[in-house]
Design goal:
The complex is a heterodimer.
Chain A lengths: L6 E8 L5 E7 L5 H4 L9 H16 L4 E10 L10 E8 L3 E7 L2 E11 L1
Antiparallel strand pairs in A: 1-2, 2-4, 3-6, 4-5, 5-6
Chain B lengths: L4 E3 L18 E4 L4 E7 L7 E2 L2 E2 L1 H22 L7 E11 L8 E12 L2 E10 L2 E12 L2
Antiparallel strand pairs in B: 1-2, 2-3, 3-7, 4-5, 6-9, 7-8, 8-9
The chains are: A alpha+beta, B alpha+beta.
């Protein structure tokens, strides 16, 4: 993974519709929080995008590059002290559609063109 | 008169991000709506892997270009930079990934701004090659 210790994948559940659900655990001790922001740790939006890309690679079984982010919406801030567990749903059709949610609420939605 | 330029450590006057998250090392406004930023990719950059500056680094560089734009306004009022967050990334094309040692130069243009939300378009180049271009919405915490 690009950012050491930002998160770990706990498990993977393949769905009947071809999508894959990943349970991930966020690490509030990750060094990114030293700078984002001092005394007010908030997961950088781009790190959430990177988690989605890396989960998509696990689904594809090969490296994927983001060619275009068609639309990515950050609906709620991911604060590592509160959001320690999250779910990432990945569909590759072959457009990447991903949702990061926690506690039944969506935090980040992504639609992107990937190439691998 | 040319607008004041900021480089290196001076960027901390404009953005709230700190090491290892800082992804802008130069900022200069052209006018109230447009300006330029840059970042030279260090080998130990958080977003580098295999000698390449990966997608989230490019997107964060553009987000921090927007943060610096907003921070320049607060700087001129004598205030410290406020926290800002990406609200939306739209039609952001990513080209060839920059390499360690490359300098990414970004031109931004503010497309709209209201109530702490700024919509901004940006194009980032290495030399003459476009490496990223698209739109972003940034929320500034008031």
């Amino acid at each position: 993974m690009l950012i050491d210790d930002f998160y770990e994948v706990v498990d993977r559940q393949d769905q009947e519709d071809g999508s894959v659900l990943f349970n991930v655990r966020l690490n509030p001790q990750c060094k990114v929080y030293e700078g984002h922001f001092p005394g007010e740790p908030i997961a950088p939006g781009v790190c959430n995008i990177e988690m989605m890309r890396e989960c998509a690679e696990l689904v594809a079984g090969k490296p994927l590059k983001l060619e275009e982010i068609s639309l990515c919406r950050f609906l709620k801030l991911v604060t590592p002290s509160e959001v320690t567990q999250a779910q990432i749903k990945i569909s590759l059709s072959p457009v990447l559609e991903a949702v990061l949610s926690s506690g039944g609420e969506d935090y980040v939605t992504l639609k992107a063109v990937v190439n691998g | 008169m040319a607008e004041k330029s900021f480089s290196g450590e001076e960027i901390k006057l404009l953005i709230p991000q700190r090491s290892p998250m800082m992804q802008v090392d130069f900022f200069q406004a052209e006018n109230d709506l447009e300006g330029n930023t840059s970042l030279t990719i260090a080998g130990d950059n958080l977003f580098c892997s295999g000698g390449l500056f990966r997608e989230p680094g490019l997107i964060e560089h553009i987000a921090q270009s927007a943060a610096a734009y907003a921070g320049y306004d607060t700087f001129r009022r004598g205030e410290a930079p406020k926290l800002g967050f990406i609200g939306e990334v739209k039609k952001m094309k990513i080209g060839n990934l920059p390499k360690v040692g490359d300098t990414v130069r970004t031109h931004y243009k503010v497309l709209g701004s209201a109530d702490g939300v700024t919509l901004l378009g940006a194009e980032s180049k290495v030399g003459d090659e476009v490496v990223a271009s698209g739109r972003m919405k940034i929320f500034i915490k008031q």
